């Protein structure tokens, strides 16, 4: 998006927002959202769309805000504002009371997996998505129900488990409250007038091409909180105890963290939760509101993984976002009184030991096949298949219960790198042999630790 100056002959110049849309359906959704909104909310809070235009492979649409656009600043610029809790409370109340006036459905049926995949979108769960690439690099198996994470003394529930209908919590069905929602309520898509006075009640929404009239109403507020948190983390080291305490604030907002320096953040978080809960209480929905907030928080945290977030170019926060999703998953299970059991494919200790031994045997056979293929009869198809299969087998063993855990993880990464080098087509036969020898040494060490 960009701000442009409309200076057509015969009328005063005006500033407008020019929105570029890669999805050709987005301008129509923006216009629909504007047309069907309650008149008071539309006039007070929605940027007015013009007629869409085609620009080669893009669609463009102008968004107009009455008054001087230069007096508006995005919520991103107010993340340290002393009144931020009040601002977020006003926005949350307005979205629920104003935009959804007489337009809610209390009995929209979902399974947990359907709820999450609907918010995430199928593309974000595909094998070529940024989320999948993160899971691979972080050694998180999407089939695992529990995961070990750096900085946590215990295993965390894997949020990917809720996106699967073959787990008991993922298959759990419930009625969600749905209605009109922005869909992408980031701190950049909320504009607030700041001159001649700061007036949060006059906020404006832009870039609402993700609008839906049947979206879970917990979504926008949780998305806004995660977006705010990514900005707060500019002032907090993502791998620090303070950052983990911020996760606690978001997933257990009723409790005190006891961590100095988070009071202002917790005040904002509580304001958003409490305003939504108060609104839900008015329509006798309070008993289910908070659990659906937790579920929306899971999806919002996962959606931000892989995004380029200003201020985090040197230290990405994807690990922090995943841990937030994991703790929000636990909070949802707690509030909904759901739990994983052995019937949900949770691996008992004996089963884990047996699986680990099977994987070690499989890895040994694959490594030998790799060695024979490289040294005796280099065959590209076989070489590619064996290395891929070996990586898959190793990837299954992400839950490592061993005093050698860190060394094992390091050796897995080393072996993967060595296998990638071994299939470099530029290598000579002698270089192939040396690459395999290095991988073989790593393999032997790894298998010794895995079976110890």
Q: How would you describe the overall organization of this protein?
A:
By secondary structure, the chain is α+β, with helices and mostly antiparallel strands. It has three domains: 2-67, Phosphorylase Kinase, domain 1 (2-Layer Sandwich), CATH 3.30.200; 73-189 and 202-342, no CATH class; 349-450, Four Helix Bundle (Hemerythrin (Met), subunit A) (Up-down Bundle). The chain contains 15 helices and 13 strands. It has helices spanning 26-36, 39-45, 84-99, 112-120, 130-137, 168-171, 219-232, 241-251, 263-282, 286-304, 318-336, 349-376, 380-395, 405-422, 429-450; strands spanning 2-6, 14-21, 48-49, 53-55, 58-64, 72-74, 104-111, 146-147, 156-157, 173-181, 190-193, 204-205, 212-216. The strands form four sheets. Strands 1, 2, 3, 4 and 5 form a five-stranded antiparallel β-sheet that branches. Strand 4 and strand 5 (58-64) form a beta hairpin. The protein is globular, with a radius of gyration of 26 Å. Residues 342-353 and 395-401 have low confidence and may be disordered.
Q: How many helices?
A: 15
What's the alpha carbon Rg, rounded to whole Å? 26 Å
Number of strands: 13
Structural class: alpha+beta
N-to-C terminal Cα separation, in Å? Answer: 56 Å
The averaged pLDDT comes out at 81
User: Could you say how many structural domains there are in total?
Assistant: 3
Order of helices and strands, N to C?
EEHHEEEEHEHHEEHEEEEHHHHHHHHH
Q: What fraction of the residues are assigned to beta strands by DSSP?
A: 5-15%
Low-confidence stretches: 342-353, 395-401
Query: Largest beta sheet, briefly?
Result: 5 strands, antiparallel
């Amino acid at each position: 998006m960009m701000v442009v100056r409309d200076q057509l002959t015969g009328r005063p110049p005006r500033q407008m927002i020019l929105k570029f849309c890669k999805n050709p359906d987005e301008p129509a959704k923006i216009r629909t959202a504007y047309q069907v909104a309650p008149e008071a909310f539309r006039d007070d809070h929605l940027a007015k769309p013009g007629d869409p235009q085609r620009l080669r492979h893009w669609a463009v649409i102008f968004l107009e805000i009455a008054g001087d656009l230069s007096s508006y600043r995005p919520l991103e610029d107010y993340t340290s504002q002393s009144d931020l809790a009040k601002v977020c409370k006003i926005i949350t109340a307005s979205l629920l009371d104003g935009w959804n006036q007489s337009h809610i459905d209390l009995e929209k049926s979902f399974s947990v997996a359907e709820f999450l995949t609907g918010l995430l979108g199928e593309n974000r769960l595909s094998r070529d998505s940024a989320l999948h690439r993160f899971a691979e690099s972080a050694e998180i198996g999407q089939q695992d129900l529990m995961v070990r994470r750096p900085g946590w003394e215990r295993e965390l529930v894997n949020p990917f488990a809720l996106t699967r209908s073959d787990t008991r919590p993922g298959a759990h069905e419930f009625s969600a409250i749905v209605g009109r929602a922005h869909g992408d309520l980031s701190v950049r898509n909320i504009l607030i007038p700041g001159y001649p006075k700061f007036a949060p009640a006059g906020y404006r929404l832009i870039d609402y091409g993700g609008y839906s009239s049947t979206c879970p109403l917990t979504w926008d507020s949780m998305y806004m909180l995660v977006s705010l948190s990514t900005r707060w983390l500019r002032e907090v080291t993502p791998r620090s105890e303070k950052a983990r305490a911020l996760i606690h604030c978001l997933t257990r907002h009723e409790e005190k963290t006891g961590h100095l320096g988070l009071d202002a953040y917790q005040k904002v978080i509580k304001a958003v939760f409490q305003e939504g809960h108060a609104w839900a209480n008015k329509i006798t929905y309070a008993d289910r509101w908070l659990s659906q907030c937790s579920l929306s928080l899971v999806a919002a945290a996962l959606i931000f993984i892989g995004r380029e977030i200003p201020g985090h170019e040197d230290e990405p926060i994807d690990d922090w976002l995943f841990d937030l999703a994991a703790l929000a998953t636990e909070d949802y299970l707690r509030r909904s009184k759901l739990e994983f059991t052995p019937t949900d494919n949770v691996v008992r200790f004996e089963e884990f030991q047996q699986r680990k031994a099977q994987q070690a045997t499989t890895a040994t056979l694959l490594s030998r096949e790799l060695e024979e293929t490289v040294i005796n009869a280099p065959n590209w198809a076989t070489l590619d298949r064996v290395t891929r299969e070996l990586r898959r087998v190793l990837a299954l063993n992400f839950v490592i219960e061993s005093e050698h855990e860190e060394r094992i993880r390091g050796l897995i990464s080393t072996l993967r790198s060595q296998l990638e080098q071994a299939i470099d087509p530029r290598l000579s036969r002698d270089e192939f042999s040396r690459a395999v020898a290095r991988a073989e040494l790593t393999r032997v060490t790894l298998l010794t630790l895995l079976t110890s």
